[in-house]
Amino acid sequence: MKSKTLHPLVGALMLAGLAHNPASAQTAPAPDKLTRVEVIGSHVKRLNIADEGPAAVQIISREEIASSGMATVRELLELSAAVTGELSDIGGGGSFANGATGASLHNLGKQSTLVLLNSRRLSIYPLADYNQTFANIDALPLEAVERVEILKSGGSSLYGSDAVAGVINIVTRNNYQGLSAKLTHESSLLSQRFGNRAGSIAGGIGDYAKDGFNVLANIDVYHRDGNFSWRDVLDDANPAMKAYSGSFGSLSSYSYPGNVIGAGPIAGCNTFNASKSLCMYDRYERFAVQPSADRISALVSGKLNISEHLQGFAEGIYSNTKTAYWGPHGAYGWALGASVWADPSTKQVRTFYPRGLPAEHPLNPLGEEAELRYRFVDDGNGNHLSTDQYRVLAGLKGDWQGWDWEAAAGVMGGKTRQRTRGSFSDSGFKALIGDYNKDTLDADFFNKPGGYRIGQVNSEAVLARLFPEYGYHASTRQTFVDGKLSGELGRLPAGPIGVAAGFELRHESMAILPTENLAKGDIVGWGSVRTDAARSFGAVYTEANLPLAKSLELQAAGRVDKFHGFGAHFSPKLALRFQPMPELLLRASLENGFRAPNLAESSPSTKSVFANGLSDPKRCDAANRLTNDLRAQAAALPDSDPNKTLLQARADGIVGSECNFGAASLVQYNPNLKPETSRIITLGLVLQPIKQISTSVDYYKVERKNEIQTINAQDLLSAEAQQPAGTLVRAPDFSNDPTFINAAEVAKYQPGAPKVLYLNDHFRNLGKTRVSGIDWAIKSQFNTPLGAAGAELDSSYLIEYRSFSTAENRWGDNLAGRYGFPHWWARLSGHQQWGDWKHGLSMIWQQPTPLTGDYYDQSWNTQDCVDNKGLTAEQCRVASYIRWDYNLRFTPIKSLTLTANVRNLFNRRPPMDYRAFGQGGIIPANREDVMGRMLRISAEYKFF
Predict the structure, then answer these.
(1) pTM for the whole thing?
(2) What is the mean pLDDT of residues 281-305?
């Protein structure tokens, strides 16, 4: 079995070993003999971009970007093995920082990955993702990019805070001359959906070497379609979903104009179940497959030769991104359970109970409170974001007596406006529908004069009060001054000593301000975040490259950063580069990294949030037994029996309420936080046995400690008895239990405790993470009778990933090879030039994983999966992922380039992930399941 699992990668490695372009021979224009360039990983300049240093750096050239067929920076970075999944604007609709995309290296997170533009920091996205701040890579124009440099080891000794996992440096075009335009269109060949379109115009004037100046202007625009629902593409979904979940594709009894359980459908219904005893609703019409997006980004840069030894430069980048999410209209009914949220104004937890119709309601003939199942199709559900971001800088650079120097000043920042609708105003509900807290409902509940009318057209005034807009105004701003110099400081017998030194001074402010209704806790089920703070900080750094011997070089670097609230922090680094022969290079490094607490963590702020994906060890097993019994009861009933639908719906909801549920949490800032720190060790080699082939193997190990976090909610549940009183709050008894609804069920299934209500916590230096792995690349470039050809393998093997449990006071299990953390990820690509045609073929492969997570994750281990999830042992894993892409470029005339890129050439489905789909799942967890084969075509024309 194991050899079969590895077979695709073995084949890929054999092919790559025959044809690959070496990392040390990166295709790039040769620089002038006297011109030195700075590449990520060192401030000491070198003669060639492609020269391998003591740190592993992946360089993606402009030619490789063009050959990839990618249209955005996010798509491009996803092709690197070192870049692991993080927040995306496509799947981030439920995050605190929706509408943006962050990048992560080696599974260490977007907050530990520093993103630079032309070797300087970018503005962070105005909205923090809970406590995480990050650069939004959706704001970057891909067509302005000359190359991408990825430093795969830590960079805090050179670049400061956040560079724990590494650094991604986006380098824009230099000395570009001419005018060009490009148009791109992509859509699915299966459904003609998933469309996106992009366009760009780039213009540059002035040859710096001849004219003494150069100015570049670039505008990128991008649009992604989002105006279609899962109903439009549901027939294309994996049949395994329907086979596993009886709810998949089904209609909902939470409908419009609704159902009074025990009395029948409300008049006006157009869709019924088989027995016509329930009014049904097609919820899939409002399940959006992906959000729409509109982006524009503009870059203007210029440089001017002031004198032989002095150059002026300036740069400005601006972007506007708009993202629109929409989802299902709100369902209402007491079987859905209570909504719990934290009120930031009172620091208390509030609970909303969906009640039925009182005995006096004209739609209720039962003589007692009756269950209402309803769909608020007029709630205006949607989430819209608009963000403006910018960076403007100007500076001087030059040389003096053999020393290169540079100084610049600038300002950067951004503003985000987020507005959401679709949830109740608590005060509006009470005013227009009624008070849900009373033991006996008022007679006019759901029937107030001038209030909301079930199944009727309601006025805009009523709807605006019941479903108001809510959201955030967020802004960030940073001013900065920096300077550096580099050159030679004496000589050793083996060669000159290269040194560099520099400084940075910065002042930053951040404000995330909720609307008044969020701040007052008036939106049912919604927490909020508030931050409004500023600070100044600075740093100095130095670096030396010492040739200890002809083939041995030592890099020593150190940086001191000073932030308000804690002492100066020193980040040192030592690295060795040993090249005993031209064909072999050995390298190693030891570095300390750090991340300073950001303003959302250490300055006055409050977060009333929701912890998701929890499994209650005191209730989950009992809930599984109850679920199995309910499903057995439903299976024994004929389809025409309305109780069959009700039993299935209750069964589907129970496991989610106890084994995959959410709980409210009130989190406070902490002004006494210390920086997160890390130790990074790397060992590597580069081997080039012949000129055409090179391979590099780099081992990395990162141990990060003092991680700023709250206690993991699952850890709290797993070690509940050890927590201080008030940390984890449960209901006082089982009297209103939403899962075990009567004393008989409590007695039969014996849950270990009442329902969890909420959690209390604050940020602290708690966590530790240990990660290690191997990055392996093979590259080649060679000639064939048809023309130049090449191939490349970029792969990463995860050896260890562990998180420390503070509640258990021990390291968790090694997650490498488990759910969400595959051991192997690899991309093999090759290209062939044939006259005016260039063909490219690539394969992405990811190793299978079980569905099991960490030690506390017992609900998806193989035994539980088979016994309680209705799956086979083979289904209790995510199979290997394989995707083939094809790219074709044609240059019919010198000024025109036509490109076709086929994503998922063989139209393979992604593997079925039963855990992500969930028991009783109703929508695919991965939109790629219905995308099928995608075709992207583009045309680029160079006017001059």
Answers:
(1) 0.87
(2) 96
